[in-house]
UniProtKB/TrEMBL annotation, chain A:
Keywords: Nitrate assimilation, Oxidoreductase
GO MF term set: 2 iron, 2 sulfur cluster binding; nitrite reductase [NAD(P)H] activity
Domain Rieske-like [2Fe-2S]: 32-144
PANTHER family, sorted: NITRITE REDUCTASE (NADH) SMALL SUBUNIT, PTHR40562
Domain of life: Bacteria
Protein name: Nitrite reductase small subunit NirD
Statement: the UniProt record of this protein carries the keyword Oxidoreductase: yes
UniProtKB/TrEMBL annotation, chain B:
Alphabetical list of Gene3D superfamilies matching this protein: 3.30.390.30, BFD-like [2Fe-2S]-binding domain, FAD/NAD(P)-binding domain, Sulfite Reductase Hemoprotein, domain 1
Co-factor note (free text): Binds 1 siroheme per subunit.
Keywords: 2Fe-2S, 4Fe-4S, FAD, Flavoprotein, Heme, Iron, Iron-sulfur, Metal-binding, Nitrate assimilation, Oxidoreductase
Signal peptide: none
Pathway named in the protein's UniProt entry: Nitrogen metabolism; nitrate reduction (assimilation)
Gene: nirB
Quaternary organization: Homodimer which associates with NirD.
InterPro entries found in the cross-reference section: BFD-like_2Fe2S-bd_dom (IPR007419), BFD-like_2Fe2S-bd_dom_sf (IPR041854), FAD/NAD-bd_sf (IPR036188), FAD/NAD-binding_dom (IPR023753), FAD/NAD-linked_Rdtase_dimer_sf (IPR016156), NasD-like (IPR052034), NiRdtase/SiRdtase_haem-b_fer (IPR005117), Nit/Sulf_reduc_fer-like_dom_sf (IPR036136)
Name of the protein this chain belongs to: Nitrite reductase large subunit
All residue ranges annotated as the BFD-like [2Fe-2S]-binding domain in the record: 423-469
Binding-site residues, [4Fe-4S] cluster: C644, C650, C684, C688
Binding site for siroheme: C688
Length: 145, 835
C-alpha cells in the first residue's frame, strides 16, 4: 500500500520537477549508491535523502544510532521517509527510541512507531515501511536502491 | 407473581435517582414497573455541586447519569411533569397529563427554599438558589445588575453569595441571627468567618430583619430593615432555609410533622404502608436531613423495604466540611457541645492566620463527641474518624487541633483505621469494603471507585480514599507503578529531582545512571522530550545543542510547528500583543516573499503557515534582523500574555495592562515547562483579556493586581481561581516566579496547570501555603531558579542561525537541494493552503 501511494505522489512530482528528474534519471541505477557522509548524519536521529532507484525516485530516512550494534554494524537504518498515516514526507524528523526491545522511530505527526529494523508499524500490523540496505564505506554512507 | 407491580417515584432529584439506581443494579425491575415523575426539565443532576454551573459546568456534565440511562434500564422517566395530586382511594397519582395507577409510591420531592413573608418578596429580581433554572434566572438578572444581596447567612446563603460575587456583583449577606452559619459555628467561629468573608469584599450585615422591599433610588430594589436602615440592590437571593415539599402528602392526609415533613419510620414507610418517603421531604425521629448522604441511606432503606430486605434507616451523621467563599468550615457531631451536658471543650484560636478549632470530648477525655473548624479543615478527616469510629483519643486531645509545628497532631494514617471506618459517607463505603474490592481484583484507584462508587458523591473523601487505596495496595505488595515509560522507573517529578540534585546535564548521563538496564537505553518519544524539558527548565541550554537535539519533538528540533503536510509555521513573539506598524509591515513582506498563509491567532500575534523546512533559516534571519524573536509557539513553554488595552487608552482601565503583559511575557519567555503556559492581563474587572481562562490570570484593581491561577480553555474549560489580591508589581512577579517553578517542579509531563491543580493533594489551600506562606521553605530556591532562567534567556532562533552546524538540518534532503516536491499548495481566499 505504501509503495503505490508513494509511487503516485512521485508521478505528480515528476511532472512538477521534470527538469530535476531528468538530471537524475540519466544517472546509472547501480545497486549501491553513495548518499552522503558521516558528518551529514545526526547521531541518535534521522536525516532524509533523495534516492534514484530502478522503480523511480524515493525519499529515504536514514537513522544513525552509534554504538547500538556494538560494533557488529546495525547502527545505520534506512526506511521510507513517507509517513503513510499523514501522507507527508516526515519520518526522518521523528524521535528515535527503543520500545519492547526494538529500535523504533515515532512519526512526528500522529506518533505511530515504526521498527527501524524492518519498518513494521507497532500500532497497525498491516502497515510496514519499505527498508533499504545501508552501510558505511569509510566515512561515506551508501544505500542499496 | 405473574404481573409486574407499578412503582411510582415522585421527584427525580438526587435521592429519587439513587433509589432508581438501587432498583436497576439489584434486579428489582423484574418485579416492579417503575415510573418516575420529575417536575424539572432536566434529568437528575448533582445539586450538591450546583454552583459549578457558574464556573463552567453545564446541565449535562452535572447530570447523575448518561442521557440514555433511564431508557436503556427500562425505567420510564417523565420530566417536566409534576404530580399534582395523590388519590389514595384509587391508588393513582394525577398530573396535568393524566392519571397513573400505583401499587407502591415513593415521595422524593425534596424541599423548596423558604422565602420569608416580606412585602415585596415577589418583585422581579427576587430569586432563590435551588435548581438549574434558578441559576439561569440569577444569571439573567445579573446581566444588568451591579449589586446583589443574599438574605440568609447559612451554608447555602454563603454559597449563593459566592456565586453572586463570581457574577461580578458587589455582594452583601444579610443575616437575621447574630452570627453567620448559626447552625454550624459558635460566636467565636462566626466572628472569624465574618472577618474572612468581609476581607473577600462581601459585606456582612448581622441581626437584620428585612421589613419590606420596595423601589430603590440608585438600584432596582431597596430593602428596609427593622431599624429603618436601608440597603439598595439590583438583585436579591433568598436563602433563609429550606422547607420539605410535603404539600402532596398533606393533601392526601398522610401524617405530617408539626413543622412540616412527611413522617416516616425506620423502613421509610409513611402512615400509609403503600407509600414511602425519602430524602429531604422525609421526617425521621423529628428530624429532617438536609444533606445528600442521609438521603442516600434512606434510598437504600426504601429499596430494602420494597424488596422485603432488612436494611433500615437509623439516623445519620450530619458532620460536614465545606469551603465557603474559599473559607474552610467543618462541623462534626455535637459541634456546639450542647447535647452532652458533661462534655468538655478545647479551643484554639489563631487571630493572625484566622483559624479557629474546637473539640468537644467526653468527660473522661477519651472520646470525641464533636468538633468545629473555621479557616482550616486539614484535620477534619482525622477528627471525623475519631468521632465516627469511636477511636480512643490520644492522651493530649488538644494536640489534634494545635498547629503542626508545636508538636504531635498525628494524623490518623490509613493503616490505623479500623475495617469499619466509613471512608465515603455519600455511598456508605467502609475501609473494609475497599479492602474487599482490592482482594477481589481491583488494582488501582479507578477500579476501586468503579466497584464501590466511593468518592463519586460529594467528593469530600477523595484524598482519604486515595491514601487508603495506595496503602492497601502497597500492603499487598502491589507496586503502585508511576513510571514515566519503560526506560525509567521514575515519575517526571522524581526525574526532575534527580537532575537537580545530581546536576545531570544530558539525557545520556541520566539514562546511563538511572535508566532501566533491560532496554537499549535509547529512550523513546515519551521520556526524551520530557527529559529535554526538565534539562531546559533547570539549565536553560539551547535546545538545539548537539546533546539535546535528538531529544526534541520535531517542533522543537526545527523550532517551528509541523503542519499536516510537513511544512512549518512561523510565529514570532509579539509581547502583550503590542506591535509597531513597521514590524507589521515586515511580517507582511516576509509572508509575501515566502508565500506564507497569514492568520491572526487568539494569542494576539500573527501565525505564518506553510514555510518549507529549507526556508526557515532565511525567514528567521529576516525577522530577527527586523527585531523579532522566537515566539516558542512550538514549545511546551510560555506562549503568550494576552492583554486588553488597559488604562493607557481605555476609559475604564485602572492599571496599565499592556505594560504589565509585556513585562511578564519578557520575563517568562523561554521557560520550558511540563506543558504550554498562557497568561492574560486585564486592566479592570471587566476582564476583556479573558484572563480567568488562563494558567495565570491577572486583573487590575484600584490598588494593584489580583492574581488568578490554573485556568484553562479548551476541551475542559476551567476558570482560574483567585490566588492573591492587590499585589504590587514586585509582589506579583515574585508570586508568579514561585508558582511557575513549583509547577515546573512537581507536575507530570504534559499536565496543564489546571489538571495539576485538580490532582494536587490539599488543593488550592495547599498551594497557597506553599507559595504565599512558604510552608515548605523552598521559596528562596524557587525564586533563584526562576531568576537563573530569566538571566540565561537567549532567542533560540538567533542562536541557531549563527551556527552552521545547527543549520545543516534545515534542508529537505542531505544529498540534494531540491525542496520536497510532494508538498502541493492551492489557493483559497487569496492565500495558499495545503492541497
Ligand atoms: C446549592 C446547594 C448546595 C448544596 N450543598 C450540599 C453539600 O455540600 N452537601 C450535602 O450533603 N448536601 C448539599 N445540598 C443539599 C442536597 O442537594 C440535598 O440534600 C439533596 O439534593 C436532597 O435530595 P432530594 O432528592 O431529597 O431532593 P432534590 O434533589 O431537591 O430533588 C427533589 C426533586 O423532586 C422534584 N419534585 C418536587 N415535587 C414534585 C412533584 N410534585 N412532582 C414531580 N417532581 C417533584 C423537584 O423538582 C426536585 O427535582 C446542597 C443543596 C443546594 C441547593
Ligand atoms: C488539545 C488541545 C490543543 C492543541 C493540541 C493545541 C495546539 C496548538 C498548536 C500546535 C498551536 C500552534 C499553531 C502553530 O503555530 O502551528 C496552537 C496555537 C494556539 N492555540 Fe492551541 N491547542 C489546543 C487547544 C487550544 C485551546 C483550547 C485554545 C484556546 C482556548 C487554544 C488557543 C491557541 C492560541 C490562541 C494559539 C495561538 C497562540 C500563539 O499565538 O502562539 N489552543 N495550539
Ligand atoms: S478590561 Fe477594563 S481596562 Fe481592559 S479593556 Fe476591558 S474595560 Fe478597559
Amino acid at each position: 500500500m505504501t509503495g503505490t501511494a508513494l509511487k503516485k505522489e512521485m508521478d505528480m512530482a515528476d511532472i512538477q520537477n521534470s527538469e530535476a528528474f531528468e538530471n537524475h534519471a540519466s544517472e546509472n541505477n547501480t545497486a549501491w549508491q553513495k548518499v552522503c557522509t558521516k558528518a551529514d548524519l545526526v547521531a541518535f536521529s534521522g536525516v532524509a535523502a533523495w534516492l534514484e532507484t530502478a522503480d523511480g525516485p524515493a525519499q529515504v530516512a536514514i537513522f544513525y544510532l552509534p554504538g547500538l550494534g556494538q560494533g557488529k554494524g546495525d547502527e545505520l537504518f534506512a526506511l521510507d521517509h513517507h509517513d503513510p498515516f499523514s501522507n507527508a514526507n516526515v519520518i526522518a524528523r521523528g524521535i528515535v527510541g527503543d520500545l519492547k526491545g526494538a529500535a523504533v522511530v515515532a512519526s512526528p505527526i500522529y506518533k505511530q512507531h515504526f521498527r527501524l529494523e524492518d519498518g513494521q508499524c507497532l500500532e497497525d500490523e498491516d502497515v510496514k515501511l519499505r527498508t533499504w540496505k545501508v552501510k558505511f564505506k569509510g566515512d561515506e554512507v551508501w544505500v542499496e536502491g | 407473581m405473574s404481573t409486574q407491580q407499578q412503582l411510582i417515584i415522585i421527584g427525580n432529584g438526587m435521592v429519587g435517582h439513587h433509589l432508581v439506581e438501587q432498583l436497576v443494579d439489584n434486579g428489582a425491575l423484574e418485579r416492579y414497573q417503575v415510573t418516575v415523575f420529575g417536575e424539572e426539565r432536566h434529568r437528575a443532576y448533582d445539586r450538591v455541586h450546583l454552583s459549578e454551573y457558574f464556573s463552567g459546568r453545564d446541565a449535562d456534565s452535572l447530570a447523575l447519569c448518561e442521557a440514555g440511562y433511564y431508557a436503556t434500564s427500562g425505567v420510564e422517566l417523565r420530566t417536566s411533569e409534576a404530580v399534582i395530586e395523590i388519590d389514595r382511594n384509587s391508588q393513582e397519582v394525577v398530573t396535568e397529563q393524566g392519571r397513573y395507577p400505583y401499587d407502591r409510591l415513593v415521595l422524593a420531592t425534596g424541599s423548596f427554599p423558604f422565602v420569608p413573608p416580606i412585602p415585596g418578596n415577589d418583585r422581579d429580581g427576587c430569586l432563590v438558589y435551588r435548581t438549574l433554572d434558578d441559576l439561569d434566572a440569577i444569571q439573567a438578572a445579573a446581566e444588568n445588575a451591579t449589586t446583589g444581596v443574599v438574605v440568609g447567612g447559612g451554608l447555602l446563603g454563603l454559597e449563593a453569595a459566592n456565586a453572586l460575587r463570581g457574577l461580578n456583583l458587589d455582594t452583601a449577606v444579610v443575616e437575621f441571627a447574630s452570627r453567620l452559619m448559626p447552625m454550624q459555628v459558635d460566636n467565636e467561629g462566626g466572628e472569624l468567618l465574618r472577618e474572612k468573608i468581609e476581607a473577600l469584599g462581601v459585606q456582612v450585615l448581622l441581626e437584620r430583619a428585612t421589613q419590606r422591599i420596595e423601589d430603590g433610588e440608585a438600584s432596582r430594589h431597596r430593602m428596609v430593615f427593622q431599624d429603618d436602615k436601608v440597603l439598595e440592590t439590583d438583585l436579591i437571593v433568598f436563602s433563609a432555609g429550606i422547607r420539605p415539599r410535603d404539600q402532596l402528602a398533606r393533601d392526601c392526609g398522610l401524617e405530617i410533622g408539626e413543622r412540616g415533613g412527611v413522617v416516616v419510620d425506620n423502613q421509610c414507610l409513611t402512615s400509609d404502608p403503600a407509600i414511602l418517603a425519602i430524602g429531604e421531604v422525609a421526617l425521621w425521629n423529628q428530624s429532617i436531613f438536609g444533606l445528600v448522604a442521609p438521603g442516600y441511606q434512606m434510598a437504600k432503606a426504601a429499596f430494602s423495604t420494597l424488596t422485603e430486605g432488612d436494611t433500615q434507616f437509623g439516623g445519620a451523621d450530619m458532620s460536614t466540611k465545606l469551603k465557603l467563599l474559599g473559607v474552610d468550615v467543618g462541623s462534626i457531631g455535637d459541634a456546639h457541645g450542647n447535647q452532652n451536658p458533661s462534655a468538655r471543650m478545647f479551643r484554639y484560636l489563631d487571630p493572625i492566620k484566622q483559624e479557629y478549632r474546637k473539640l468537644v470530648v467526653s468527660s473522661d477525655g477519651k472520646k470525641l463527641l464533636g468538633a468545629m473548624l473555621v479557616g482550616n479543615n486539614s484535620v477534619y478527616d482525622t477528627l471525623l474518624q475519631y468521632y465516627s469510629n469511636g477511636i480512643e483519643l490520644p492522651d493530649e486531645p488538644a494536640s489534634l487541633i494545635l498547629p503542626q509545628s508545636s508538636g504531635a497532631a498525628p494524623t490518623l494514617g490509613p493503616g490505623a483505621l479500623p475495617e469499619t471506618a466509613s471512608i465515603c459517607s455519600c455511598h456508605n463505603v467502609t475501609k473494609g469494603d475497599i479492602c474487599a474490592t482490592i482482594d477481589a481484583g481491583a488494582v488501582d484507584l479507578g477500579g476501586v471507585k468503579a466497584a464501590t462508587k466511593a468518592s463519586t458523591g460529594c467528593g469530600g473523601c477523595t484524598a482519604l480514599l486515595k491514601s487508603v487505596v495506595d496503602h492497601e495496595l502497597e500492603a499487598r505488595g502491589v507496586e503502585v507503578d508511576k513510571s514515566i515509560c519503560e526506560h525509567f522507573a521514575h515519575t517526571r517529578q522524581e526525574l526532575y529531582d534527580i537532575v537537580r540534585v545530581e546536576g545531570i546535564k544530558t539525557f545520556t548521563d541520566l539514562i546511563e545512571k538511572h535508566g532501566n538496564a533491560d532496554t537499549h537505553r535509547l529512550g523513546c518519544d515519551i521520556c526524551k522530550p520530557a527529559v529535554a524539558s526538565i534539562l531546559a527548565s533547570c539549565f536553560n541550554e539551547p535546545i538545539t545543542d548537539a546533546a539535546h537535539i535528538p531529544l526534541q519533538d520535531t517542533n522543537d528540533t526545527f523550532m517551528a510547528n509541523m503542519q499536516k503536510n510537513g511544512t512549518y509555521s512561523v510565529v514570532p513573539r509579539v509581547a502583550g500583543g503590542e506591535i509597531t506598524p513597521d514590524k507589521l509591515i515586515v511580517l507582511g513582506e516576509v509572508a509575501k516573499k515566502y508565500s506564507l498563509y497569514s492568520k491572526v491567532t487568539g494569542g494576539q500575534r500573527i501565525d505564518l503557515f506553510g514555510a518549507r523546512l529549507e526556508d526557515l533559516p532565511d525567514i528567521w534571519g529576516e525577522l530577527i534582523a527586523a527585531g523579532f524573536e522566537t515566539g516558542h509557539a512550538y514549545g511546551k513553554s510560555l506562549r503568550t500574555v494576552k492583554s486588553c488595552v488597559g488604562s493607557t487608552w481605555c476609559r475604564y482601565g485602572v492599571q496599565d495592562s499592556v505594560g504589565m503583559a509585556i513585562q511578564l511575557e519578557n520575563r517568562y519567555k523561554g521557560l520550558r515547562s511540563p506543558h504550554k503556559i498562557k497568561f492574560g492581563v486585564s486592566g479592570c474587572t471587566r476582564e476583556c483579556a479573558e484572563a480567568q481562562s488562563k494558567d495565570i490570570g491577572i486583573i487590575a484593581t484600584e490598588n494593584g493586581w489580583n492574581l488568578y491561577v490554573c485556568g484553562n480553555g479548551g476541551m475542559r474549560p476551567r476558570h482560574a481561581e483567585l490566588f492573591a489580591t492587590d499585589l504590587d508589581d514586585e509582589q506579583l512577579y515574585r508570586t508568579i516566579d514561585r508558582f511557575l517553578m513549583f509547577y515546573v517542579r512537581t507536575a507530570d509531563r504534559l499536565q496543564r496547570t489546571a489538571v495539576w491543580r485538580e490532582n494536587l493533594d490539599g488543593g488550592l489551600e495547599y498551594l497557597k501555603e506553599v507559595i504565599l506562606e512558604d510552608s515548605l521553605g523552598i521559596n528562596d530556591e524557587l525564586e533563584r531558579q526562576m531568576q537563573t532562567v530569566v538571566d540565561t534567556y537567549q532567542c533560540e532562533w538567533a542562536d541557531a542561525i549563527s551556527d552552521p552546524e545547527k543549520l545543516k538540518r534545515f534542508r529537505s534532503f542531505v544529498n540534494d537541494d531540491r525542496p520536497d516536491p510532494s508538498i502541493i499548495m492551492t489557493s483559497e481566499r487569496g492565500q495558499l493552503r495545503p492541497a
